[in-house]
Structures are given as C-alpha cells and as structure tokens.
Amino acid sequence: MSYRRLRPLLFRLDAERAHGLAVRAGRLGQRLPALTGALFGAADAGLEQTVWGLRFRNPVGLAAGFDKNAELVRLWAALGFGHAEVGSVSARPSAGNARPRAFRLPADGALVNRMGLNNDGAAAVAARLAATAAPPGLVVGVNVAKTHSPDILGAAGVEDFRASVRALAPQADYLALNVSCPNTAEGKTFEAPDALDALLAAVADEMGGAVNVARPAPEGDRHPSKRSSQSPVPGPRSREPKASPPLLVKLSPPPTGGVDVGATDELVQICLDRGVAGFITTNTAADRDGLATPPDAVGRIGRGGLSGRPLAARATTLARHLYRTTGGRVPIVGVGGVDSAEAAYARIRAGASLVQVYTGLVYEGPGLVGRVNRGLVRLLERDGFGSVAEAVGADA
C-alpha cells in the first residue's frame, strides 16, 4: 500500500532516474537486513527445491538488468528472493546508449529499454562479488553479454564472452549467457545456429579451465550460504570461488503466433549437445505486439526491448514447449510478465522450476516478492501439491 502511494511520484520522474533512486534506497535497505526482512520476507518449506545441485529457498528470483553491477546482493536476500541474477555484465565496461533510454508503458504494465548493456565490466563485477559474502539462502547468478560495441563481431565477440566467463565463473552460482539481447550496438544476437554453436563450444572450453582455477566446495557443502575458510579475498565479507557453475542460455520470446518449432528445437539441441544446464525464457522483445498503449506513443519511444506483462503469454508458451521438448529434464527459468502469484504459478505449471521478476517490481514495488511467495503457498495447497517441484510442468 505504501508503494502504491509512492508510485505516482516516482512515475513523474524519468524511468532511469527513478531506478537510480530505487538503487539508493536499496543500499540503505541492505544495511538494515533484519528490518528489511521483517517488512518484506516470506518463507515456507514447500517453496524450497534443489536445482542444479543448488538449494533455492523459494522459486522467485530477480531478473538480470536491475542490479547490473552486483551492488545490492545483500538486499535481494533481505527482500526474500530465492535467487538474484546480476548483470548483464560484459568483458569491457560500457556506458551504454544515450539517454533517455528507459520508458514506461503503464497501460500495459510494461517497459521499453535500450540501455545498451551499461555496466562496470567483468573484472570490476567479479571483484565486487568476491568481496561480498554470499547472503544466507540466496543463490547468485551472473548474466553475461557481449561488450556493447559494433567493432566486436564474430570471433572477437566469442573471445569477448570468454573473457567475461573467465573472470566471473569463479564467483557465480550459475552463469547465464545473454545471447538474445536486442540492445546490442550492431543489433545482432548469437541465436543463429552456427554462431550459438561456436559460442557454446568456446564457453565450454573456458568453463573447463574454470574448474582448474576455482576450488570446488567439498562434497555435501554446495549450499551457497556456506563460506570457505580459504577465501581468495581477505576479510570477513569474502566469498568462496565456485567450481565450474551450471551454464544457462537466455532465449528470445517466440512470435505472438506461437513457437517456431523447427528453429527453436535446433537451438535447443545445440545447447544440449554443448552441455547447457538450463534455459531462461525469455529476454525482452524487439517487436511491439499486443500493446494497449496508442501506436503514436509507442512510436515516439523508438527502438528497445519490451518487457513486462505483454510477454507473459509468449514466455509461458516457450517454457511449455521447452519442457515438452526436453521431457522436463532440463530446468527452465521463467521471466517476462511475472507480476503476481498467479502469473508465477502459471509459469511453473507450464514447466518453469524458477521464475524471475523485474518489470513487476517497477509497478508493484518490493513487496511483490513476499506476495508472490505467499500466494504460491496458497495455490499449491489449493491444488494439492506438497511442493513447488510437484507442480512444475503440471500443465505441460
């Protein structure tokens, strides 16, 4: 209720400026974790599950894009998230595109952004993660993208990804490859089959190297809240380097009319052949299909990736298709239009083991995390499921 009173004031500001205020408020919130947790947290044993050998206290995570530089990791734990995906992070620092570059579509519960992958770079983010103790109960993923430059193409783009993986893999509970971002400077992605295969081959080779430089946790000690007494960075806030973390691929949303089965299944098979452990469905969309916002207002915004409620049906359709295609053997993270317990539950029943929110936070505020988790408990009990894992893929 407090956020709903505050939101009209925030919405008078440029979207990026309001985001900056939220980040500053978040820095305060993570200094008071007990108070933040008391205000916003929610926990239930039925929400816990193990995915990729990692224990998730609940299925609700933060999507990439909000905490690009891993500055608020402790906040996400206090707010009750089960995981947080920081980034996107690129090998080189980037200032991104010129402002304005983020826009709200309130009639659609959506955002359009053309941020341009602004971030501090892989070395800086890796150092920040290394110096930050893993908060109890929070799984931290890192989303990696190609540096925002039209000069880094082809083989150079692959090497750019490799450099990021080399720096960040030891600090990530899982790595997500952002191969589908529509905000690259050259407007291209790595979703063409040959390009994706070459990238995954190089990353797999690099991840093999990461195993040799990262000290794996002892068997039975894989919980992300555990700390090592042999941390690479001195001090009480350091975190343990990870063994080669699970690798996920973030895919584009399908067309409004449905999944292109042939093209999608080809990409999925390439990913599986290269050892990809999971899929994130979906990234933002370059199109403007199904919007209630008047076309002239949308046209004035210009290019950028669309996120939020308009993507919900498309992202759910892709999650369901991937679950069926893989026989439910490969975990799926559902993102895009998850702004309520009902939306999260639909994604889970379609085949997603985990869900993520971003645009929903803009419209619903930080209390969204607890509301979704509490709502999921009620929905699971209503339908006779003893856990989230039992509900995954129920509609697929």
Describe the structure.
By secondary structure, this protein is an alpha/beta fold. It is built from 14 helices and 13 strands. Strands 3-4-7-8-9-10-12-13 form an eight-stranded parallel β-barrel, surrounded by four helices. Helix 7 links the parallel strand 8 and strand 9 (about 245-250). Helix 5 runs parallel beside helix 6, helix 7 runs parallel beside helix 8 and helix 11 (about 340-350) crosses helix 13. The longest helix has 21 residues, at about 195-215. It starts with a helix and ends in a 5-residue tail after the last helix. Mean pLDDT is about 90; it is low at about 210-235.
Quick rundown:
This protein is an alpha/beta fold and 396 residues long.
Core attributes:
13 strands; single chain; 396 residues; three-stranded antiparallel β-sheet; eight-stranded parallel β-barrel; alpha/beta
